[in-house]
Amino acid sequence: MSNKYIPTIEDITAVSGIDTLPPGKLDITRRMAQLSDIKKGKKVLVTCSHRGYQAVIYAKECGAEVCGLDIDERMIEFARENSEKEKISINFVIGDAQEIPFGSEQFDIVTNEGAVGIPENPQKVLSEMVRVLKRDGILIFRESIFADNLSVEEKEELRLRYGNNIEDIKGWKERVDRAGAEVIFTETEPWLEPSNFWNVRHDREVRDYHDLYTMTEKLRLSKILMKKYGKDGITMAAENERIFYDAVKNKKIGYGIFLCKKINL
Ligand SMILES: C[S@@+](CC[C@H](N)C(=O)[O-])C[C@H]1O[C@@H](n2cnc3c(N)ncnc32)[C@H](O)[C@@H]1O
User: What is the C-alpha separation between 64 and 47, in angstroms, rounded?
Assistant: First the structure.
């Protein structure tokens, strides 16, 4: 689909190359492990595993057998380095979450944090996550959600500026349903808290989205954006950040956890 709002928020994050953590600096990951009962003896697939933070927690803290899948070779390399540093064995595989390179019914738990909506076909991501689940398996994901009261037009504009095909809770439930699973529990508090979107640095607390990047990082990012998207791209990036983070501050967008079980026919 053509998008007149490029570079999106997800594009900016990706080109920045800056390592950020999930909401609550991994609190949400630990909560997901607790809700889905990730433990020794369980086989877990982390889709869109990024730098491997979730995979490391599930393997090191919970004792599960973990596999991570990401489409970006560099992320797989970072993830392998991270797991080596933590002295933990995890199988990181390059692949597309829309066509998971594993046979059906292999995993006890399949997870995704913040990236069901990034690939072109989020429905395919969910269907594939369900396909590789064992018959009594658990699907758990954390995604951005819209507040209930937004118009169709406002949602569409925010989706395009964000670069993420997000839904309200009802919309995510319908997608899970179509994928062959059922949402059995959702949790939105404390994950709706706006600061979850920017207080994600390893080394410091970030009190506002303006401070997510340091001055040096902002200068470097501007140069990268200029090279890749030109002057108009820089203007669009600033506009997208302002509109997207205003929506977050006004609680039009937050995060939610979806715990789901596979429906066996
Ligand atoms: C926003 S990050 C995910 C965040 C990560 N789960 C975390 O919380 O740290 C998006 C990740 O999804 C990966 N990704 C995007 N499209 C993908 C696809 N079609 N299949 C697999 N991974 C994909 C990107 O390479 C990137 O590592």
Answer: 15
